[in-house]
Fold this sequence. Notes:
Strand content: 25-35%
Strand order of the largest sheet: 2-1-3-8-7-6
Number of strands: 17
Amino acid sequence: MQAEIIAIGDEILIGQTIDTNSSFIATQLNLLGIKVEQKRVIADSDTAIRLALDGLHPKTSMVFMTGGLGPTKDDITKKTLLDYFGGEMVFNEAVYENVLSLFKSFNREPKEVHRQQAYVPSSCKVIINEVGTAPGMHFEKEGRHYFSSPGVPYETEHLVKDKIVPWIIEHFEAGGLFHKTVLVQGRGESDLAEMLSEWESALAPNLKLAYLPSPGLVRLRLTGFAESNAKAKEEVEEQMRGLESILGPLIFGKNAQSLEEVVGISLKNSGLTLALAESCTGGYIGHLITSIAGSSEYFMGGVMSYSNEAKSDFLGVNKKSLENFGAVSEQVAIEMAQGIRDRMKTDFGVATTGIAGPGGGSDSKPVGTVWIAIAGPRKTTTR
């Protein structure tokens, strides 16, 4: 079973709004084993909506449309869908009762423009939206199901998760679809492709590996298609064991984990503590570490030592090291890491010092030069 998503809104096309609805819908459909064949972002126009609906893939059985259901004149989706599917606008008492209930909870009176939200095409099944005035709509034509929801993210999330997904589960048995992702560091996309070439070539046609590079890591997602979710999961898990045996310690996490989350889990499970001395990163590593719930159990604090004076006064970096080697050097990074570890009395101290640019570089230390040091109980490591 496959689906398509149509996001309607000029605000998305001009970059004013980020389309989070499509991501949410796709995630929910994947959990059901429904493949999303394509997603389109189109303008708030009758022509664009019609062309999108006429251009659906022949095998698509479900269409999710978001946006254009508000009470203002630029919200034209409802009228366009009426013209497309036929019927007439009819007043729906249940929708208006929901509008009245919402405004009562705000201690406000609805206006005529809000009453207009209760008019819906007679060709649709209404999906009551308890968190907004615009109802969802469910159309059916030639065996294909069309779901229309407001562009407001929390309203679409409510309708999809609490109304549409349960309906799909009740009426359909979707095919099997399963994803598993591993997070890899230390090697780039091309290196990984070379390492996995033989393994990847041996994959069955119903299994697909995707390389998803981003700064500092590469996500490898293996997707399986089968007659059931259980069968797809079984095949993916079996092949993932082969991938993991090839990459070994290059893998640091799985699925939606972040590097800071994995570091936190490792420190917490080991009963170890961490402190930071940041120069060029300006406190950003500390921000990432403390973004994880429970980080106070293992993160003791840090110093943002941007100036040479801060490095010597707060971290104990030798002034001669600064003079002889410069702030951006292996020696200074070592002293920063050891200094923050000693002062915070932690198991590990991590330091960064570098030339972020755009100025400040030289032939021997160009912009982008960064030294990282990790001081631990046994040794200090630098890169």
